[in-house]
Design a protein that fits this description.
The chain has helices at about 10-15, 30-45, 60-65, 80-90, 110-115, 150-160; strands at about 1-5, 25, 50-55, 75, 95, 100, 105, 120-125, 140-145. The protein is α/β, with parallel strands linked by helices.
Amino acid sequence: VIVVSVEADAARQRLNGGAIGIVDWLDKPIDQQRLLNALATSTQAHGKPRLLHIEDETDVRKIVAQLLKDKVKLSWADNLQQARDLLAEGPFELILLDISLPDGSGLSLLAEIEQHHPASKLVIYSAHELAPQYLQQVHAVLTKSVTDNDTLLHTIETLLATNQPSGS
């Protein structure tokens, strides 16, 4: 379901995530790129979910790639600019985001993700703690030094499962 309404943001806040199967809430006038992203997300239900891993540490990227092998279509960005370029190409079901990147804070992407990819699940996976004011913008927060691979995999699989239509 893609909701198009003059009051989309107000309706989304009233439901507070309680509506299952809604890909996106679009305000009028419609942002064409956001509509195209929502349509692409809704039509990808039968393929592998797309995951964007924004991480500059090669070893961490290799571990995540091994954990998710054959489960997702994985894209990587190791800096903010690469992340923005990939986000502009289309929707991701899940975004795994490191806070500390070589060209700035991964948190600078939160507003862009919320605006253009509101259906994406967002997981902070970082060595740095997340400030409390960001907690409502993400679906999970995992600290690299204390999160084992099983917990990381379970968190990602659980969040991706909530994106699947019933019967999948």
